[in-house]
Amino acid sequence: MSWIREQELSFIERLTGNILKAGPMPKHVAFIMDGNRRFAQKAHVQRQEGHSQGFEKLAETLRWCLNLGIHEVTVYAFSIENFKRSKEEVDGLMELARQKFIRLLAEQENLEKHGVCIRVLGDLTLLPADLQQLIAKAVLATKAHNKCFLNVCFAYTSRHEIANAVKEMAWGVEQGLIKPSDVSEVLLSECLYSSNSPNPDLLIRTSGEVRLSDFLLWQTSYSCLVFQSVLWPEYSFWNLCEAVLQYQLSYRSLQKARDLHREGQALQQMEADRSCVAELLQHRGNGKPVDAQSRQRELLNYTASREERVRCFLNALQSGRIFHPVLWGSG
């Protein structure tokens, strides 16, 4: 089964898609593909077959997303918590992943045609060595593609991701690359596995469960969350359209909340820089007053030096100087 199903929409599907595209469309959609095991039980087939059907539905959904102009998709493929399942099921999922990444390497021409860049986000050190190598080859093979992006969260939980980002910032401070005062919400976001992607506009969970299950907790603070009762292997184009419509109905309030949050972050950073400059000037001038022009000049210099420190630190992370090796999705 191909990673992207070659199938055109019907006339009514194209018409519906065009009507939806007249409104604001999500650029990045995240999926919690839940319900594979319940589908297998419902269809009286093995669990492994349910997971295989789930992958086929992903390939079909990616095609729908491309047709709707959605150029970035993130999927929750395997949680770190899933390692607690039976050995038989975990081994089956690892084997399914091997098959699909081997298939990906075999169909590079199709992926290049669509310009699909595959990123795998998570702590890949938890995976079998041969699967790590396959994933690395697949990511490198599509790294230069930039028309659309598929982020596969594998051996992933959001808490693990955030904890790893905090450890990386602590390492940066210990190494003298950044100062403790440089640590901020914005910097933590840059240290996440998903740092090369914008935050999802829309998050969809299937199967009727109304929880995030430790998926993209940081990134979806200002996303539209849609919970649908359909099991993932039974997901349809119309389910996706319903979710997009819910996003459009929430668009204005979401956009306002995002703008206010960005303004708040900028103000918080400015206040932090001013506080650092005031401390520096007080130490340097032994408490003597400093005129406003000199203070502004020092503030500009300090901001520039902070931005340069952060840039060098992030370059060091991208070069692999991090505590827990993971496969960063660079596109």
UniProtKB/TrEMBL annotation:
GO terms for cellular component: dehydrodolichyl diphosphate synthase complex; endoplasmic reticulum membrane. SUPFAM superfamilies: Undecaprenyl diphosphate synthase. Keywords: Endoplasmic reticulum, Magnesium, Membrane, Transferase. InterPro entries: UPP_synth-like, UPP_synth-like_CS, UPP_synth-like_sf. It is a peripheral membrane protein. GO terms for molecular function: ditrans,polycis-polyprenyl diphosphate synthase [(2E,6E)-farnesyl diphosphate specific] activity. One of its GO terms (biological process) is polyprenol biosynthetic process. Its EC number is 2.5.1.-. Its cofactor is Mg(2+). It comes from the Eukaryota. PROSITE patterns: UPP_SYNTHASE. It catalyses: n isopentenyl diphosphate + (2E,6E)-farnesyl diphosphate = a di-trans,poly-cis-polyprenyl diphosphate + n diphosphate. It is found in: Endoplasmic reticulum membrane. Pathway: Protein modification; protein glycosylation. It holds the Pfam family Prenyltransf. Its main location: endoplasmic reticulum. NCBIfam families: uppS. With NUS1, forms the dehydrodolichyl diphosphate synthase (DDS) complex, an essential component of the dolichol monophosphate (Dol-P) biosynthetic machinery. Adds multiple copies of isopentenyl pyrophosphate (IPP) to farnesyl pyrophosphate (FPP) to produce dehydrodolichyl diphosphate (Dedol-PP), a precursor of dolichol which is utilized as a sugar carrier in protein glycosylation in the endoplasmic reticulum (ER). Forms an active dehydrodolichyl diphosphate synthase complex with NUS1. Belongs to the UPP synthase family. This is Alkyl transferase.
